[in-house]
Each structure stands twice: as structure tokens, then as C-alpha cells.
Amino acid sequence: MKAFLILEDGTVFEGTSIGSTREVISEIVFNTSMTGYLEVLTDPSYAGQAVCMTYPLIGNYGITPDMESGKPWPDGFIVRELSRIPSNFRCEGTIQDFLVKYDIPGIAGIDTRALTKILREKGTMNGMITTNENFDFEAIKPQLNAYTTGDVVSKVTCSDKQVLSGTGKKVALLDFGAKKNIAKSLNDRGCEVTIYPAHTKAEEILSTNPDGIMLSNGPGDPKDCGPIIEEIKKLYSSDTPIFAICLGHQLMALANGADTHKMKYGHRGGNHPVKDLETGRVYISSQNHGYVVDTDKLDPKVATPAFVNVNDGTNEGLKYTGKNIFTVQFHPEACPGPQDSGYLFDRFIGMMGGEQ
After folding, report:
1. Most-buried pick from 225, 276, 304, 321 (CB within 10 A)?
2. For residue 296, is pLDDT > 90?
């Protein structure tokens, strides 16, 4: 069946329908990872977006036990070629069946390099995936222009508190769309991890006297999380050690008077170099974000830059002055991607008084 990707600038790509055949409008983004497509599909940070994979062949090892959450979150999936016959000893099914099961529409057979170049040159834009060959762009255009991701954090967060038992430090993890490997990375280091829904009050978390607090990754515009930011202000004032990743990094910055803005096309992939400003060492990192903290509006009495993106100079981390708090824009838990910066979890253990 034919399928079409219609961008809000009028560009149309024709390909083949994969997954669900329902029509969807979403924000179109690209990911440069060469592997780990299942972890990308199940990363809650993609809620409200349709993902174009720049690597040309997707699905060649099928569906494996590598999901970062209980279900996939993107609105759509865009690939050059979808492997219909996967081969891997861990394979449990095909991407096609997986997309159909979770009602995710997609398109294959388009020039993903051309799409990526458009998004890089013109910036991230909205688009529609449809199987309707008689579409009317002028009728669709107002819908494309009007689309926003909205309050996607409420959509992806857990509904109830969960506990991963451990004999080490007690960590409270606020789930804004947390990937499973964040909790696992802490749990593997002996921590007892209590996962809280995103809108949990600071008083409830602090009443348990955690040794540390973890703020997770998540989707959407951080400025849409006003009530959560108010609770983070209380956590900041508690003097409890805090480590934050991705959206959590942005929310902590907003809670302390900094600003954020939307990037032209964001950072999504497993090959982004970040420099530790304290040591000068460069790490290759996994990233997935479309917003960034403005360091020029950052009060050095509150926080100072700790990491910087080597490619474009944008902020990749903050260390809070006089506080046991540090935050990073990238993903030290990776999945997919390199494990170069996994040591940051050990640093967090040390901040809580444990052995690194």
C-alpha cells in the first residue's frame, strides 16, 4: 500500500505503508543511531514525535528483549528500508508486527537522507503520514501548523509508585518518561530505587528521607511542566543530593531562573561528543532532546556549565554552586549508545556518601 509523508513546508515523500494504516500528524525528527532502533521506539522521550531513522536498514535483528519501557511511544516511524525477515538468536518478532500491534503508522522506501537534510536546513517541522492518495495539502496545512506535542509528560509517566529493592543507598526517581536503564543503572550499583509519578509532591518524596533524588529524561517542552518545576524548587532547597538527566536537567535549570529554547533540529543519536569542562576529557554520548538550556542567562552564583557539546557549543551539563547537585543533557545510561559516561552514576553514589 502506498503511503505519503507530507511536511508542513509542502514537501511530499511517497513510499510504502508499514505498521498501522491510520493517519497521524506529528513533529518529524531524525535519529542517527546505527543500531538500537527498539530502544529508540520504546524511549518515552519520543512521545508526540514521529522518528526518521537515518541508518538505511532497520529491523534486521527484529524485536529483542531490549525495550526501554513497556510499549513504543513515537507517533510514527520513518525508514529507508524495513527488514521483513529478521535474523538474530534473540529475535522474538518483526518490526512490522510490532508496529501493527501498537497501532503505530509508518512509511518505508523514502529517501531518508533527503528528509534529514530538509530538517537540518529548515529545522524540525510537523508532518502527516497518510495512505490517502487523494490528500489535499491546502486542507491539511492548517492542521499541520496547529500541531503541538502538548503535555506529554503526563502521558508517559508511571501511574503508581514502584520500588526496585536494594541494600545500598535509597534513591527517589521522578519519572518524567524515564528509560528503564536509568533505574537499572542505579539498582545494579546496589541502590534501592523508588520510582515516583511525575506529579508527585516534593513533600511526599522528602518525607521518606532518600539518600538521593534522580530526575529523569522525558518528552516535550520543559516550559509546559510548570507544576513540576514548582516541586523541583522544593527539592532543590532540601539539600538532598540530586542527579538529573535530559528533561530533568532542563527542569532543574528552569526552577533556578535559567531559560531554555527549542533547537533547530535537536540532538538525537548515539554519537554526540561532549566535553567535561573540569577535566577536558571528551566522551561520546547518547542523546535525545530538542530543547537546550541557555547558559548566557545562567547566574554563576546558582550554577556553572559542567559539560559542553563539542559539535555546536550548546550546554550539556550544569554543576550547582554550593549544592550537591549536578545535571546532564545527555544519557549516561545510554541504551542505545556508548557507555562512556556511565561513571556519572558512580559520581552520584559518591555524592550520597557511598563508595564510588
Report:
1. 225
2. no
